[in-house]
Amino acid sequence: MSEPQIQLSIRNVRKSFAAKGGEVPVLDGLTFDIYERDFVSIIGPSGCGKTTVFNIIAGLLDADTGELVYRGVPVDNLRGRIGYMMQKDLLFPWRTVLQNVLLGLTVRGVPEHEALDTAREYLSTFGLSGFEQSYPRTLSGGMRQRVALIRTLIMDPDILLLDEPFSALDYQTRLYLEGVLMEAVETFNKTVILVTHDIDEAVALSKRVVALSGRPTKVKNVHTIDIERSSPVEARSDHRFSDYFHTLCGELDIQTTKKRVKA
Amino acid sequence: MTQVTALSSQEAQSAADPKAGTRSKRARFSFDTGGGRIVLQLASVSAFFLIWEFAAWMGWISEFLVGRPSGIWNVLATRTLDGSIFVDSGYTLYEALLGFVIGTVVGSAAGLAMWYSAFAARLVEPFIVALNSVPKIALAPIVLLWFGTGLVSKVVLVVSMTALVALIAAYQAAKDADKDLQSLMRSMGGTKHQVFYRVIIPSSLPAMIATFRINIGFGLVGAVVGEFISSKRGLGNIVYTASSLYDLNTVWVGLFTLMLVGFFLYHGIDFLERRLLPWKQDVERAHVQL
C-alpha cells in the first residue's frame, strides 16, 4: 500500500452536553484520521457519542474544543460537502422519489433540466427507473434506503457519513444494500465513514475500523482490515474475517469465547 | 409504475385470499356499494320526513312548534322561485368564506412565521393563549358596534373566530416538524429559509388543512351569529326573524339550507386536501377489515 493521503483529521475534539446534574462529557479528546478514498467504520458501545461525532463533522453541532482539518486546511465543519445518511431513510413523504433525489441539487441551485438528467441517470443505475413518480410510502424499506443512498451520492459529496444506514432492514436486504453501497463507493471514488453497531458489517465493508471506548469517549484502537474483497459477502468468507471479528468483539468487551461455549 | 401496480394488486390478492373462505359464510352485505348506500340514505331521510308529516297530520305533534314538512316544502318552493333563498345563502356563504380565507391565511402565515424566531414565539405565546381562551362569539356585540350591521362586521367576526385557531395549529405543526429532516436539509447546505420552505411548510400542511375543517364550521357560526344580532339578509337572518314570528317552517328552510351550505363547504375542503396532499392519498383508502 502506498503512503495514504490524509483527507480529514479529527483532532482532540471535545464535546459535553448540559444535563440535569451538570455538564456531561461525551467526547473526550477524540483524534483520528480519514484517508483519501478510505472506508472507515466507527464502532463503540451504545451511547458513546458516535452520532455526535457525525453531527460535529456535518456542522449540525459545534465541538467545544478541538479542530477539523480538511485536506490540510482547518475548517469549522463540512456542511454542504458531506452526504449524510441515517438509519431512518428520511425521505420527504410529500416528495416523489424523483423529487427526493433532486432535493440536494435543488438546494445547491443546479439548473433544473441538468438536475433532472442526473437524477434519472442515477435512478436507472440503481434499478429504480419507473418509480420516479411514486411516493416513498409506497416503497419497501430496502427501496427507500436505496433512494436515500442515491440522494446522498447525487450530491457528489467528498465524504459519505453513514449512521447505521442499514440497521433497520432485514438481513437479506442489508446484505444486498451493503453490496450496492460498496459498488457505488468504488465507482464514484468516495470516502466513507460508517457508524455501525454491527461488527460483522464493519469488518465486511471497511478498510479500517475505529473502536471507541465508553463515555467519555476516546479512540481505543484503530484496526486495519486487510481483506481482499470484491463484495461484502465474499469478504465474509475470507479466512481472516473471523479473526478480525473476534478482535473487534474484544474491543467492545464482548466475550465471544464464552458465548460459543454456551452455544 | 407498472411494477408498482403489479405489486399492489398482488398484495391486494394475497390480502383477499384468506377472506375468500369467510366471504361465502358472511355473504357480503349487498347494499355496501356506492349506489346501494345512496338508496339506503335517501330511504331513511324520506322515512324521517314521512313520519314527521304523518305525525303532524295526525296531530301527535304541534305543527305550530315544530313545523311540518309539507309547509317547509312550500316555503322552500316560494323562496326558490323568487330566488331569495339563493341571495340569502349567497350572503352567508360569502361572509363565511371571506372571513375563513382571511382568518385562515393570516393565522396560518403568522403561526408558521413564529417558527422563525423562538424568542418571538415564546414572547407572544401567553398572549395568544389568553386571547384564545375568550369565547370569540362573545366579541360579536362589540364587533357589530365597531363595524356596523353590514357585511364587514360578519367577516371580522369570522376572522376573529378562525385566525387564532389557524395560528395555533400552524405554529404547533411547525414546531413538531421532523427534526431529522431539518438536519438533513442543513447538512445539505440548506439555509434556514430553505428549511422553512422545503420542510416546515409541507410537513405542517396536513395539520393546517385539518384545521381548515374546523374553521370552515366556525366561519358559518360567525356569519350566522353576526346575522342573528343584526342584519338585513342571510340565512341567519331568515332563521332569526322567522323564529321570532313563530314561523317554524321558514326556520327549518333556513336551517336545512345552512346544513347544505356547510356540507358543500366541508367537501370543498376535502377536495382541497386531495389536491394539496396527493402523497397522503393512496393509503387512506385502505380500511382495516374486522
Automatic annotation (TrEMBL), chain A:
Coiled coil: none annotated. SMART domains: AAA (SM00382). The keyword Nucleotide-binding applies. Keywords: ATP-binding, Nucleotide-binding, Transport. The keyword ATP-binding applies. One of its GO terms (molecular function) is ATP binding. Residues 8-239 form the ABC transporter domain. CDD domains: ABC_NrtD_SsuB_transporters. Belongs to the ABC transporter superfamily. This is ABC transporter ATP-binding protein. It comes from Flaviflagellibacter deserti.
From TrEMBL, chain B:
It is a multi-pass membrane protein. It comes from the Bacteria. It is found in: Cell membrane. The chain crosses the membrane at residues 38-60, 96-116, 128-149, 155-174, 195-225, 245-266. Residues 1-13 have a biased composition (Polar residues). Keywords: Cell membrane, Membrane, Transmembrane, Transmembrane helix, Transport. Residues 1-21 are annotated as: Disordered. Residues 89-273 form the ABC transmembrane type-1 domain. Pfam families: BPD_transp_1. InterPro entries: MetI-like, MetI-like_sf. Signal peptide: none annotated. PANTHER family: ABC TRANSPORTER PERMEASE, ALKANE SULFONATE ABC TRANSPORTER-RELATED, MEMBRANE SUBUNIT. Belongs to the binding-protein-dependent transport system permease family. This is ABC transporter permease. It comes from Flaviflagellibacter deserti.
